[in-house]
Structure formats: C-alpha cells, structure tokens
Model the fold of this input.
Amino acid sequence: MVSLQALGGCIFLLCITSIVQGQLYKANLLRSGHYKIENVFDSNLKDALGSIGQNAWNVNHLDLSSNALSKIDSSDLSQFANLKVLNLSLNVLSETVDLSQLQQLQTLDLNNNYIQRVRVGRSVQNLFAVNNNITGVECVNNAITGKKLNLANNKINWLRDIGSTCRNGVEELNLELNDIDEINFDDLSGSRDTLKILNLAYNFIFNMKRSGNFVFTSLNTLDLSFNKIAFMSEVLNVAQKARTINLMNNKLVLIDSGLRLTAVTNLDMRGNEFQCKTLETYLGNHKNHVARPAETCDSKQQQKGGYCCENLNAPFADRLIALKRREQSLFIPRDAQKNREECERENSERQNRVKHILAQHRTQIDQRVFHEQEKVKLSSRKIELERVLAEKEGGIDSLKELLRSTASSLSLPNVSAEDTQKAMVDIVEYFERRNQEEQRKQSKAIQDVESSQQKIEKLLEDKAILDKQTADADKALKAANDTLVELTAKHDALSKFLAAQQAS
Done:
C-alpha cells in the first residue's frame, strides 16, 4: 500500500491508488460522475479503469488525457454504460480508434494523438480530433443535428473522407490545415439548414464545385483563406447568407459577374492577384466590400477599394505563364532564389499556423508519461522513416531511369542521371532553349504576318484608289456617251432640216 504522504497528498475528494508492474496510476473523483485517471499506460489500463469498480455505471465524464495510451476501443470501456464525455487527448493513440459501441457518448476529445481513422457511435455530437493524422471519420448510425466537428491539422483529402452521417446535420466543421485540394459543397447539402461555421483555411483548394442550387441558410462564417483558389465563381453563392467570408492569401484573379454576396458585412480578399477590371466590376456591385486596412501595393499594381490589382489582358494565361516559369525556375540558378523564397514564405506561414494550433491544444503532462510518450513516438517515427526511406530510394531509382530515358530521347549524351539535380537543370535548360527557339520562330512568324498584313492593307488602299478612279472614269464615260447621244440626235435633226430646206 502506498501512503497519501508518499503521493504528496491528494487534493481530490477521492484518490484511489495502485502500483501495477511498477507503474502508478491515480483515479480521482473530481465531482459526482466525473473521474480523471492519471499515469495510465497500455499495461495498466484495465486495472486503472477497474479501480473505479461498481461506480462505473454512474460515470458520465471520464478523463484519460495526458497519459501514454497507444490503443483503446469500445470493449475497454464497456462497463461505462452511461458515459457521455470521454477525454483521450494528449496520448499516443494511433491507427484506428473505434468507440462506436459507446451508445451514450456525446462528446469525444482525441486532440493531440497520432490517429489515422476514427469511428464513433450514434449519439456523438461533439468530436474534437485536432493535431492527428486522420484520413477518415465514420459516424455509425448517427442522425444527431447540431454536430460540432473539429478536425484541424489532419490528413483529410476531401469532404467525403468524412462519412455522410457525420457530414449531415453539422453546425460547426473545422477542417483547417488538411490536404484538401478540391471542395464540392454538394457534399455538405445535408447540413444546408444547420451549418453555421465552416473553416477550410490552410488547405490546397484550387477548385470549388456545386451542382445543386442550394444555399446554407444558417451559415455565419466561411473561411477559405490561405488556399490556391484563382476564380471567385458563382459557386460561392452557396454562402450568400454568410456574414463573414475570408478569402485572404489565395491566387484570386477573376470574379464571376453572377456572384452576389450582398449579405456579407465582413469580407477579406487581401493578398490576391486580381485583374483590375473584374475587381472594379465586383466592388461596383458590392459597395460595402472595402478592404480595411487597405493593402500596400507594389509599383506594378493599382489600388481599387483598398485591394491591389493589375491590368491583365489575358488574366489566366498571364498567371499560368508566370506559374510555369516559377515551377521551372526552381531548377534554374538565376531565377531560383526569388521563387524559392516565395515557396518558403508560404510554407513558413503554414508551419506557423500548425505551431499555433499545436500550442493552443497543448497542456502539461507528467514527466514520466512524457518520456513514455516520446519512446512510443520515436518508435513510430523510426518505422515511418524506414518506410519513407524505402519509398524515396525507389523514387530516386525511378527518377534516374526517367532522366536517362529523357536524356537519350533528347540526344543529350553528356547528361549524367547520377547527378539528378544537374541532370534536371540540363534537361530544363534544353527545353528552355527549345522554348526560346520556338518563341523566336513565333516572333518571326508574327513579324511576317504583320508585314504581310501591312502589304495587304497597302494593296487594299491602292485598290480603293483604283476603284475610285475607275468609278470616276465610268462616270465621265457615261457623261461622254450621254453627250454623244445628244449630239447625234441634234445632228439627225439638223440633217432633216437641211434636207427639207433643199427640197423646198
């Protein structure tokens, strides 16, 4: 038996202690039905939970946070028949966590773990799973409305990675800092009347779609900041009831003339690449959408309504050319520095946001538990790095083979596939030379066309002059013919008169 004095005293109403395999856990009754269990490991989980004994049926709030659990499922918690709140944050849970058999569970906290997939039951209304590696969430037979799902800083690729029963009836959905590159608002049609907050910031979204003509009737806040969106299309009319829309730091160039966000009182579009004409038209239809504070524009830009823009004749083509040049320049020393700095800046912004989210959900844990967590994390990291290394080695071999075949097809005998960076630079420079040659040919062809056009225009001018001269000549000839006819008639009349005089 371990004394209370040896434990440093117990400040809780009840403190149950036990040593199992040299590991001490403490089950603390904070208030009626609310237990917190500390110093829990995989090896003593069963005993730690069992220490609550016959009171398990009366527990509605169980806190197992800040421990070193790497696995748990519904069977471990089967004695907690009336459990409504479960906190498993700050453990080292990984792979799949399946708690779908906990029929009364309403709130589940899985923040700060290494979980890949989550299964919850029919009664879960609040799921907090920030800072994991989640790629999928399933809500078994869940028809709850007003759900709050916080899945920030995970590995979600698209909305359908979240099961339909999870997506239906959602009130708040936070998917900030995931891997989403395309968003289809139809996937949230089951929440059209319940969704109030949708956070999709810091993803990689470049395309938005919607086939249904529905509107989120209760939506208050939509955050699409720090993505890759280039076109503010009519799809955004799905959020026309929202009060706040954040589109900061995208790649916005054009705005659809059919877009109407007249209910929005707080719109932020700073940090984009607008064409001036489209921005001016949009702001003309939305007088209240002025940037506060106004952006600071560079020498090539103008400012309209507090936003920076450029006069682009072919907006998407101009941006696409700039993007392609930026991609190629990463391998070309003379252009690489500037574009790498931009990539590093964007990555730094994302990493800073990740650190903020991590810090926001981090709490203090016992030093021994911390070391145990670190052991588990390092073991998992080692396995992951070994897997990645094998993939990278295979990828490098494939890249070398691709470089060899490319160099051979381009007749570049001096390119060494072993020096991959130099090989890529040589191949890119080859295509740059080809591109410059094609551009020279195109330029020459354009000059020839322009010269031919000038000749054609000169010939047309000469033809117009000749046509005018011909018309004048025809007119003069007609006048001469008319005069000749008149003179002939007079001659005939005179001849008759003379003949008549001679006869008399």
